[in-house]
User: Fold these one by one.
Assistant:
Number 1:
Amino acid sequence: MPIRELQYPTESYSKVNRHRERADYALETIHGIVNSCPLLHVSFQDPDSPFPAVLPMMGQMGSFDRPSAGLGDVLDLYLHSYVSARIVNLVRASSLPDSEGLPITIAATHLDGLVLALTPHSHSFNYRSALLFGHAHLVTSTDEKLYALELITNSVLPNRWSQTRIPPTPAEMQSTAVLRVRITSGSAKIRSGGPKDGDKRDLADEELLGRVWTGVVPVYTTLGEPVAGGYNRVEGVPDETEKWRKERNGEAEGFATEAVKEG
């Protein structure tokens, strides 16, 4: 019997309204977009400011209680921050008994291609985007904090945590804050494929078709050649790092190229 794919509830604040055919509420899809995004944009409301705040932050989905949980399982989002950062102070102030925590919204976006059409109106991007909505709490358990820091560190480079000087010193632990976000809902929106001009007159205009190039320019992040630091004493780049870098570059290029064929 097949296992049913878990999905986030389509709340009024998380539902995709425009281009609903591009929406995806599956946990695995949303968590995959978030975990592969180097920087997340986190928004929250500071009561002392007339405007919502938006911060670029590092984060990863995971489960401290079930470390082996997959992307399709119910997960928390862990965010790395500084102990006296504004968002941390707001979370700390909201951490009262029976409190849901600080409401925040998290956005993750990957740009996969520039879609060039006959008219500016029909230009677009190939992209994968995800939104998560939840409530943030401060992680106070040392074990859970170490779990989250290892999770986030290894998202930068696989196994990087174990290759460095660990564990963190008491001073490092004290100055670092980790937020756990309990997710209430989320959604993804994905566009792939080539240009889609909708005006039949343009598509029948031979002069226009012969003058304007249409198609997709794939976009992907390339990890460049590593440059040693000023006090580096290790000769050469570790084989594991170089292998991962080349594989990651190949996967990124392949993904952006395949996205052109989809849709």
Number 2:
Amino acid sequence: MPRGASPKREREYEALKREFKQEGRYEGREEEVAARIVNKQRREYGETKAARAKDRAGRSPDRGLAIADYEQLTVPQIARQLDDLDRKELREVRRYEQQHKARKGVLTAVERKLAA
């Protein structure tokens, strides 16, 4: 595990490593595979040094959206926050979602709000 990983990610890494050893999966490579999985999650959730630097510099892809920390939210969490947005903000969320994750649930919820 790289230094600076959160305690949550450290626990996750240890749990994965232990699970792989118990199941006999990835024999001799348990640590490597667990580290890759946890590092992938850190990248996806913007927990790496590069992602934090990008956010501080104002270049995060979800910066400027009406929903804070959009990239880390699930479909139900986003859907709950759509009620507070005006039509312009809804169109921005739709455009962003189409260009990035294209989650059907989010796009459907946005379209429903725009049609109402």
